[in-house]
Amino acid sequence: MDIQELIIYIEEEFEEVDKGTLHPESSIRDIEGWSSMHALILIALVDNHYDILLTGEELKNALTIQDLYNAILKRKS
């Protein structure tokens, strides 16, 4: 698992995001049309691809894709 893989999954999941536009430092909440539904989709995405059920608190604390990736890594170890 690497951060580029996570970025690809996010870009595929969110139709509002153009492919190749997200980076590790991209703010999750700056995704166009961000809503609580997007948060639930991210939780499901991480669960499906990495078998990790993030908590609402972990997602709330993840401001960037790098933060989200770090939360996943922390739970995998």
CATH architecture annotation: Orthogonal Bundle
The total count of helices amounts to 4
Along the chain, the helix and strand elements come as HHHH
- Chain oligomer state: single chain
- Give the class-level CATH name: Mainly Alpha
- CATH homologous superfamily descriptor: ACP-like
Please state the CA-atom Rg, rounded to the nearest Å.
11 Å
Query: Largest beta sheet, briefly?
Result: none
Percent in strands: under 5%
CATH topology: Non-ribosomal Peptide Synthetase Peptidyl Carrier Protein, Chain A
Principal-axes shape call:
globular
Share of helical residues: 55-70%
Low-confidence stretches: none
Question: How would you characterize this protein structure?
Answer:
The chain has helices at residues 3-13, 36-50, 56-61, 65-76. The chain is mostly helical and 77 residues long. The protein has one domain: ACP-like (Non-ribosomal Peptide Synthetase Peptidyl Carrier Protein, Chain A, Orthogonal Bundle). It has 4 helices and no strands.
List the keywords.
77 residues; Non-ribosomal Peptide Synthetase Peptidyl Carrier Protein, Chain A; mainly alpha
